[in-house]
Specification:
CATH superfamily of the largest domain: Nucleic acid-binding proteins
Low-confidence stretches: 1-9
Structural class: alpha+beta
Number of domains: 2
Strand content: 25-35%
Number of strands: 8
Radius of gyration: 18 Å
Order of helices and strands: EHHEEEEEEEHH
Largest sheet: 4 strands, antiparallel
Length: 137
């Protein structure tokens, strides 16, 4: 199994248009890597794959703390911040099934990436759904 020591990288040192052609790998390559967890290191890979399904068994959004962004229970109390929240935020956490010619795997689309792909915040999407239901669309 290959071992990867992530290289420290300064964001925006290479334009995205060039970067997408630089580190092209297969899903099998990614799923076979052993990762060292170091918060200040980033590695980007480009994968040509197909989003085959969204897995909603565990939901696709969650209530979160406005301050630390952690998931909170229905009683609206954040254990980490030790605060009761009056207006928690809804955030995306979408499990996507991804396939290419070499493998199948699941990617998690967290809030910031999901917002970019969908074009709406989780709150905006939930409001749109609610409005569509009540308007009969």
């Amino acid at each position: 199994m290959p071992v990867v020591q992530l290289q420290k990288r300064i964001f925006n040192e290479v334009p995205v248009e060039k970067e997408i052609f630089q580190n092209i790998v297969t899903l099998k390559h990614i799923t076979n890597l052993v990762w060292y967890n170091n918060d200040d290191q980033v590695t980007n890979f480009t994968i040509k794959a197909m989003l085959s399904d969204a897995d909603s068994r565990f939901g696709w959004c969650y209530l979160s703390c406005n301050f630390c962004k952690k998931k909170i229970p229905e009683n609206l109390y954040c254990q980490k911040c030790r605060k009761e929240l009056k207006f928690p935020q809804m955030r995306y956490n979408i499990e996507m099934k991804v396939t290419d010619e070499s493998a199948k795997t699941t990617f998690l689309l967290f809030d910031s990436i999901a917002q970019k792909l969908i074009g709406l915040s989780c709150y905006q999407l939930l409001n749109k759904q609610e409005n569509d239901i009540f308007s009969g669309e």
